[in-house]
From TrEMBL:
PANTHER family tied to this protein: 4-COUMARATE--COA LIGASE-LIKE 9, LONG-CHAIN-FATTY-ACID--COA LIGASE
Pfam families: AMP-binding, AMP-binding_C
The entry's keywords: ATP-binding, Ligase, Magnesium, Nucleotide-binding
Catalytic activity: (E)-4-coumarate + ATP + H(+) = (E)-4-coumaroyl-AMP + diphosphate; (E)-4-coumaroyl-AMP + CoA = (E)-4-coumaroyl-CoA + AMP + H(+); (E)-4-coumarate + ATP + CoA = (E)-4-coumaroyl-CoA + AMP + diphosphate
Gene Ontology biological process terms from the UniProt entry: phenylpropanoid metabolic process
Gene field: LOC101780161
Occurrences of domain AMP-binding enzyme C-terminal (ranges): 462-537
Cofactor dependency: Mg(2+)
Top enzyme category: ligase
EC number in record: 6.2.1.12
Keyword Protein biosynthesis applies: no
Family: Belongs to the ATP-dependent AMP-binding enzyme family.
Official protein name in the record: 4-coumarate--CoA ligase
C-alpha cells in the first residue's frame, strides 16, 4: 500500500495542521467498505479469509491442547447462529449478555450473535450479583449465556442459557437444519456492548458498532501489509503466520479486539481461562507463540523471572503492550535481556474499540515510552483542560480523538455520553498526553489520577516506572493520599521481591534521587499484591480506600 502525501497544511512529520489545531494520521489509508453497504462484523471478518480456508487452527485451548480448525469454527458459528434465530428467537437489535471465562465456546457464541444482528455484551464472570444487576439495568439484554459456575449470580428475571448445558447444545446443533435467513444489518447498528473498566467509577456500557469493528479489522490488515512490504523491500522473509496467546479476558476490549483480529487475519489464537505467568510461559513454549498481548507488569515479571530465561521463548517475535503506559526504563531493560522480541506499544480505550495509536514495525518500536502514531483514519487534538485551547506538538493536554472506531455512546447513560463526546464526534479520553515533532503520542497519565501536591501535578505512572526499575520491587502502585496541609501526598504501595528486606525509607530515598522535590513519595505501604483490572490497570480507588482505612501516621 503506497504512502499517501499529507494534504496541504498538514506537517508531513508530525501530522499537525496549524490552521485547525488538529493532528492527522500519516498512516496509509486502509480501504473501508462504503457506509451504506449492509454488513456485520462477523460477515466482514469471514469475508477477509483467503480461499481455501487456512489449514492452521483458528482456536486452541491452552490448558487442554484442544484445537478448532477454521472450517469447524465457521461451521460452528453458522450452526449456532441458526439455533439462536430459530429456537431462541434472537433478532437484530437484541442484546445478549455473555458471562464466561475464555473457553472455546465463547468466540463461537460472540461471532454467532453478531452474525444475526444481535449485540454481544461480554461481562466479567468475577463480577458480583450487584454488579451484574447494574450491567443488566444499563444494557437491558433479552437473554444471558453464562458459564455454569456464574449463572446463579445473574438477576432472576433474566432468561439464562447455561453454556454447555443440553439446552445450549441443542441451540448449537439446531442451525444445521435451519440456518438463519439473510439479515440486512446496517454497519451503524450496535455489534457489541462492552463494559468500561470502571477504575474511576461505576462501569459504563459502551456501544460499539459493526462499522467500528470493521474499521478496526481494516487498520490491522493495513499494518500487516506495511510490515510485509518493509520486509520485502529489505529482502527479508515475511513474518510467519501469527500464533497469538490470549491471556487477556475476552470480555475486555483488548482481548475482544485481539480475538476478532486473529480470526479476520486467518491466524491462530491460544485461549487461557485466566492469566497465570508460569502457565503463559509454558504456553509460549508449547504452542510456538509468536505474538503475546500483555500489560506492562508482564514485562516487569519477565525481566525479573528466572523461569523466563529457562524457557524456550525463541518463537516469540512480538509482545503487544496495552492497558497502561510502558516506561522507557522497563522497555530498555527488557530489550537488553530479550533482544529478539519486538515491543509493539499501542493505546486505545473501550470507547475507541481498543484502537487509537500504535507502533508499527521494528524502527517505530524503538521509540520507547511512546504508544506510537495515530492509526489510519484517526484525528486527534491536545486540549488544555483549563482554557479549552487546542495545543501543538510538545505541549501537554487532554487527548481528544475522532475517527471510524469511536463508539456510538454509552448505553442507558445519555448524560455520560454528552460529557464524553461533543457534537462534532470528538471523544474526550481523560488522558493527559502530548505528541512530539515526529507524530509519536506519549501518555503522561489519567487526568483524574494526577496527584495534586501543593498545587503541583504529580503523575502516578511516572513514579511507578521508577519504582518498578528497583531490583527488589516486584510491583508498585502510587496513589494520592489526602492531607490537610498540602492537598494530596504521593503514597506508594510496594510488592517486595521474595526475601527482600527493603524498607520504607529506602523506597522513598530511591525515588527522591530521581525526581523533583514535589514528586517525592512520602508514604509507603508493603502489600502482597496490587489490585488490578483484567486489562492490568491499577485499581487506585481500592488502594485509596485501603490507605485511608489504614490511617497510617504522617511521615
Amino acid at each position: 500500500m503506497a504512502e499517501q502525501p499529507p494534504p496541504g497544511g498538514i506537517d508531513p512529520r508530525s501530522g499537525f495542521c496549524a490552521a485547525t489545531r488538529t493532528f492527522h494520521s500519516l498512516r496509509p489509508s486502509s480501504t473501508l467498505p462504503p457506509d451504506s453497504l449492509p454488513a456485520t462484523a462477523t460477515a466482514y471478518a469471514f469475508s477477509t479469509l483467503r480461499s481455501p480456508l487456512p489449514d492452521r487452527p483458528a482456536l486452541v485451548d491452552a490448558a487442554t491442547g484442544i484445537a478448532v480448525s477454521y472450517p469447524s469454527f465457521l461451521a460452528a458459528v453458522r450452526s449456532l447462529a441458526g439455533g439462536l434465530w430459530s429456537a431462541l428467537g434472537v433478532r437484530p437489535g437484541d442484546i445478549a449478555l455473555v458471562v464466561a471465562p475464555s473457553r472455546l465456546d465463547v468466540p463461537v457464541l460472540d461471532l454467532a450473535l453478531m452474525s444475526v444482528g444481535a449485540a454481544v455484551s461480554p461481562a466479567n464472570p468475577a463480577s458480583t450479583a450487584e454488579e451484574f444487576a447494574h450491567m443488566v439495568a444499563l444494557a437491558r439484554p433479552v437473554v444471558a449465556f453464562a458459564a455454569p459456575e456464574v449463572a446463579a449470580k445473574l438477576p432472576r428475571g433474566l432468561r439464562c442459557v447455561v453454556i454447555g448445558s443440553d439446552e445450549y447444545k441443542r441451540l448449537s446443533s439446531a442451525g444445521g437444519a435451519s440456518p438463519p435467513p439473510p439479515v440486512a444489518v446496517k454497519q451503524s447498528d450496535t455489534a457489541a456492548v462492552l463494559y468500561s473498566s470502571g477504575t474511576t467509577g461505576r462501569v459504563k456500557a459502551v456501544a460499539v458498532s459493526h462499522r467500528n469493528l470493521i474499521a478496526l479489522i481494516c487498520t490491522h490488515r493495513a499494518n500487516r501489509e506495511k510490515v510485509e512490504k518493509e520486509a520485502a523491500e529489505a529482502g527479508e522473509e515475511p513474518p510467519p503466520p501469527t500464533v497469538t496467546l490470549l491471556p487477556l479476558p475476552l470480555f475486555h476490549v483488548f482481548g475482544f479486539m485481539m480475538l476478532l483480529r486473529s480470526v479476520a487475519m486467518g491466524e491462530t489464537a491460544i485461549l487461557m481461562e485466566r492469566f497465570d505467568f508460569g502457565a503463559a510461559l509454558r504456553a509460549v513454549e508449547r504452542y510456538r507463540v509468536t505474538l503475546l498481548p500483555a500489560a506492562p507488569p508482564v514485562l516487569v515479571a519477565m525481566i525479573k523471572s528466572e523461569e523466563a530465561r529457562r524457557r524456550d521463548l525463541s518463537s516469540l517475535l512480538v509482545i503487544g503492550i496495552g492497558g497502561a503506559p510502558l516506561g522507557r526504563e522497563v522497555a530498555e531493560r527488557f530489550a537488553a535481556i530479550f533482544p529478539d522480541i519486538e515491543l509493539v506499544q499501542g493505546y486505545g480505550l473501550t470507547e475507541s474499540s481498543g484502537s487509537v495509536a500504535a507502533t508499527v514495525g521494528p524502527e517505530e518500536s524503538k521509540a520507547y515510552g511512546s504508544v506510537g502514531k495515530l492509526s489510519s483514519h484517526m484525528e486527534a487534538k491536545i486540549v488544555d483542560p483549563t482554557t479549552g485551547e487546542a495545543l501543538g506538538p510538545g505541549q501537554r493536554g487532554e487527548l481528544w480523538v475522532r475517527g471510524p472506531v469511536i463508539m456510538k455512546g454509552y448505553v442507558g447513560d445519555d448524560e455520560a455520553t454528552a460529557a464524553t463526546m461533543d457534537s462534532e464526534g470528538w471523544l474526550k479520553t481523560g488522558d493527559l498526553c502530548y505528541f512530539n515533532e515526529d507524530g509519536f503520542l506519549y501518555i503522561v497519565d489519567r487526568l483524574k489520577e494526577l496527584i495534586k501536591y501543593k498545587g503541583y501535578q504529580v503523575p502516578p505512572a511516572e513514579l511507578e516506572h521508577i519504582l518498578n526499575s528497583h531490583s527488589d520491587i516486584m510491583d508498585a502502585a502510587v496513589i494520592p493520599y489526602p492531607d490537610e496541609d498540602v492537598g494530596q501526598l504521593p503514597m506508594a504501595f510496594i510488592v517486595r521481591k521474595p526475601g527482600s528486606n527493603l524498607t520504607e525509607q529506602q523506597v522513598m530515598d530511591y525515588v527522591a534521587k530521581q525526581v523533583a522535590p514535589y514528586k517525592k513519595v512520602r508514604r509507603v505501604a508493603f502489600v502482597s499484591a496490587i489490585p488490578k483490572s483484567p486489562a492490568g490497570k491499577i485499581l487506585r480507588r481500592e488502594l485509596v480506600q485501603q490507605a485511608v482505612s489504614m490511617g497510617a501516621s504522617k511521615l
